[in-house]
Amino acid sequence: TNWINGKTALVTAAGQGIGRATALAFAAAGARVFATDINEATLAEIEGESGVETRKLDVLSDDDVKAVVGEIGHVDVLFNGAGFVHGGSILEMKDEDFDFAVDLNVRSMIRTIRAVLPSMLEHDGGAIINMSSVASSIKGVPNRFAYGTTKAAVVGLTKAVAADYVAQNIRCNAICPGTVESPSLQERMRAQGDYEKARAAFIARQPMGRLGEAEEIADLAVYLANATYTSGQACAIDGGWTI
Ligand code: NAD
Known about the structure:
Elements lengths: L7 E4 L5 H12 L3 E6 L2 H5 L7 E5 L5 H11 L4 E4 L14 H28 L3 E6 L13 H21 L4 E8 L5 H9 L3 H10 L9 H13 L7 E4 L6
Parallel strand pairs: 1-2, 1-4, 2-3, 4-5, 5-6, 6-7
Helix pairs in contact: 1-8, 3-4, 4-5
The structure holds nicotinamide-adenine-dinucleotide (NAD).
The site of nicotinamide-adenine-dinucleotide has 29 residues, from helix 1 and helix 6.
């Protein structure tokens, strides 16, 4: 189906990486897209793309979320892209880092879903797509305690929302990527000191022998927006990491 054609989509973390690719892919599929991010400079780079409007939105702020959703009015498709990777094991993790990971990786999705759901229910349904990771309930990944724990929570919240609203035509699914080329991945590789070594290690995790592209993940987001018989799924897209 091309259910998304003519629908209104709200995309968070659309300034770069998977969120940006998804905002552009939704627009190419015929949606009216509100591409949002905390970073106005990166958003400015996609302002003016056909079908795309940009808005500053900090998903850590309930007021911000309510204001942007209030301005848009009805949202048919919500893409929750915001997320942050903390390194470290349970013993290395700082409590404040865990609190931040819960707030950005999990509570942000609760804020946006609460803001769009009432109108989706009034309008006979909608599609919600949440960014999780294979580093979640799917796979334990070394050195990713806060990340894996919060991304597992994303899978749980996805299934809980799907279960509560399946009869009202709300579909809620999660995307669980392996390692995907993105500006923040570049930062993490540079931060390790030896960029080439860090890059080789990330590639070595992927049996396909390469990193994923943001556009490949965006294709799955479009599929899930259009997947009118699919809800509550955690869809791995991981270069073979979990074969
Ligand atoms: P990225 O990390 O490069 O970009 C993240 C974006 O989020 C930035 O534009 C940033 O400005 C925005 N952001 C940060 N805080 C925000 C806030 N408070 N409010 C609104 N926006 C905010 O992008 P990416 O690497 O493509 O990751 C996107 C999502 O995909 C994340 O949830 C990430 O955990 C998940 N993911 C990424 C990978 C990967 O390998 N890149 C793998 C699995 C899952």
